[in-house]
Amino acid sequence: MMIGPNQPSSAGGGRGRGRQGRRPNNQGKRGPQQPGSPNRQGGIYTAPMDHSYRSALQGNGSQRGRSQRALGTQYLQPEPEPLPAPPESAAPRIFAFVDDLFFAAKITETARKLNVKVEFVKTEKEILERSGENGEQKPSLIIFDLNNAAAKPLTAIPRLKAKLRKKTAVIGFLSHVQGDLKVKALEAGCDMVLPRSAFSQNLPQLLRRHGAPDELDEASPVPVPE
Question: What does each C-alpha distance from 204 to 26, 143, 196, 201 come to in angstroms?
């Protein structure tokens, strides 16, 4: 049977396929979105972001920052007042066995601000010569960099303590990980052994107390953290 151009096909595939291939007119069109309703793009939830959490985080961060600043400043020692300027002929009351350039510069600058005389020495003989024959000019403080091998601190400390007695304090500083050296320095006669950080933090108080004349010397020791 012949099928004319205006006759429907018995196979029925062409017209059906054409209708199946068409997309509905409203496909891909969106109506007006209601205020506050979430957006969905390709199945992904895209609701407007609530930025209120940022202010909460910023508030907590600032509170933590204030707490940390308060904690950091809680143990800071106040800057001591400078001493009256000593006469140029006055003998130094503090000697230092320090060859580390950083700490030597720090000691020098701090002593200058406090009007305290500090003399850097290399041998114990230099200190004993400045003390006088009868020891009338004994130093108030001797500082040892316990890592200064040239000064031989573990050998020099007991000899100096034996000759200068209790009137002279001996303070050593070292790295905080050198526990064995700290024990040996205390056994040798050091009155106090501090980590570098603690020594640096308490240096102004130590220099002022031991650099002051006897009539201005404080009776109470300087509080130093362990």
Answer: 83, 13, 14, 8
